[in-house]
DNA sequence: AATCCGGGGCA
DNA sequence: TGCCCAGGATT
């Protein structure tokens, strides 16, 4: 059924479809982890344009690659991308491994990605199990085992292996994911057009909208980020984040994080500068309105406080002073680029 | 087994 | 808002 649907009704076009170069398949799969095709597409094209081969990617500077990844999120994917590219060039002479277990050993490659590479590039019979597959299987077989538990993962992984067309694994994997993305969608699935509805347990029992089941409900953490943008003679004070926290490897300005909201005004800013760092020569340029950024499990709110210093302070040794024209070469989190874009005086 | 890691789109 | 997206690493 799936294969026939794929042949006759699937018109989803993507540049990596039918691709046999494992480098390109791997790259597309890493980009698409927890990321919609529409969002990842431009990044994929940009990466292929900059780095047509894995050797070119492996030779690129970290910061250049992270800048290309800027805005896509889950930045550990980008760090692991480089680690793996360099390992393949050094250890495998640039030839991508074929073996499933070896693929799994690569940083950033888990069960899904290893199966995707093994099947798409080499047509090996490994079933991909992504969000689409969980959904299609749980609905079609009417299974309410929670997909975010170990029993659920085992159940659906086993099922995916059973239903996989061992003769055409690449086509089948492509078909089931496209089907999940365009027909058996998370919300408002197109059951009316679904060729499988007379065999679909969820459809027959009216449970389509209650499957798949997820157990955990994430709770959101609230954080307040107050960024002090210090400028001294055309140079801006920036810092590269390297704590175990969000946005690792990305740059930011001087950050004051608080648990509760702060009421900043001219007087409070000047007092804080003086009490904290003994700065008395600062010119307060602007205090922005409150900016917000919604992450999956954190809500970031905060303000940008722009200051001009007439003398270069000797504190904050680990920070860097960067001239304006270098600023746009650095990768920043969305929270910051969004603000910079709206304030052309700093941003561009 | 539980927690963490972004950002965008959509109802 | 809450949910989801071609998931994986870490603890």
UniProtKB/TrEMBL annotation:
<dbReference type="GO" id="GO:0051539">
    <property type="term" value="F:4 iron, 4 sulfur cluster binding"/>
</dbReference>
<dbReference type="InterPro" id="IPR000445">
    <property type="entry name" value="HhH_motif"/>
</dbReference>
<dbReference type="GO" id="GO:0046872">
    <property type="term" value="F:metal ion binding"/>
</dbReference>
<keyword id="KW-0411">Iron-sulfur</keyword>
<comment type="function">
    <text>Adenine glycosylase active on G-A mispairs. MutY also corrects error-prone DNA synthesis past GO lesions which are due to the oxidatively damaged form of guanine: 7,8-dihydro-8-oxoguanine (8-oxo-dGTP).</text>
</comment>
<keyword id="KW-0479">Metal-binding</keyword>
<dbReference type="Pfam" id="PF00730">
    <property type="entry name" value="HhH-GPD"/>
</dbReference>
<keyword id="KW-0227">DNA damage</keyword>
<keyword id="KW-0408">Iron</keyword>
<dbReference type="InterPro" id="IPR003265">
    <property type="entry name" value="HhH-GPD_domain"/>
</dbReference>
<comment type="similarity">
    <text>Belongs to the Nth/MutY family.</text>
</comment>
<keyword id="KW-0234">DNA repair</keyword>
<dbReference type="InterPro" id="IPR044298">
    <property type="entry name" value="MIG/MutY"/>
</dbReference>
<keyword id="KW-0004">4Fe-4S</keyword>
<dbReference type="InterPro" id="IPR023170">
    <property type="entry name" value="HhH_base_excis_C"/>
</dbReference>
<dbReference type="InterPro" id="IPR029119">
    <property type="entry name" value="MutY_C"/>
</dbReference>
<dbReference type="Pfam" id="PF14815">
    <property type="entry name" value="NUDIX_4"/>
</dbReference>
<dbReference type="GO" id="GO:0032357">
    <property type="term" value="F:oxidized purine DNA binding"/>
</dbReference>
<feature type="domain" description="HhH-GPD">
    <location>
        <begin position="31"/>
        <end position="182"/>
    </location>
</feature>
<dbReference type="InterPro" id="IPR005760">
    <property type="entry name" value="A/G_AdeGlyc_MutY"/>
</dbReference>
<dbReference type="GO" id="GO:0034039">
    <property type="term" value="F:8-oxo-7,8-dihydroguanine DNA N-glycosylase activity"/>
</dbReference>
<dbReference type="InterPro" id="IPR015797">
    <property type="entry name" value="NUDIX_hydrolase-like_dom_sf"/>
</dbReference>
<protein>
    <recommendedName>
        <fullName>Adenine DNA glycosylase</fullName>
        <ecNumber>3.2.2.31</ecNumber>
    </recommendedName>
</protein>
<dbReference type="GO" id="GO:0035485">
    <property type="term" value="F:adenine/guanine mispair binding"/>
</dbReference>
<dbReference type="GO" id="GO:0000701">
    <property type="term" value="F:purine-specific mismatch base pair DNA N-glycosylase activity"/>
</dbReference>
<keyword id="KW-0326">Glycosidase</keyword>
<dbReference type="GO" id="GO:0006284">
    <property type="term" value="P:base-excision repair"/>
</dbReference>
<dbReference type="GO" id="GO:0006298">
    <property type="term" value="P:mismatch repair"/>
</dbReference>
<dbReference type="InterPro" id="IPR011257">
    <property type="entry name" value="DNA_glycosylase"/>
</dbReference>
<keyword id="KW-0378">Hydrolase</keyword>
<dbReference type="Pfam" id="PF00633">
    <property type="entry name" value="HHH"/>
</dbReference>
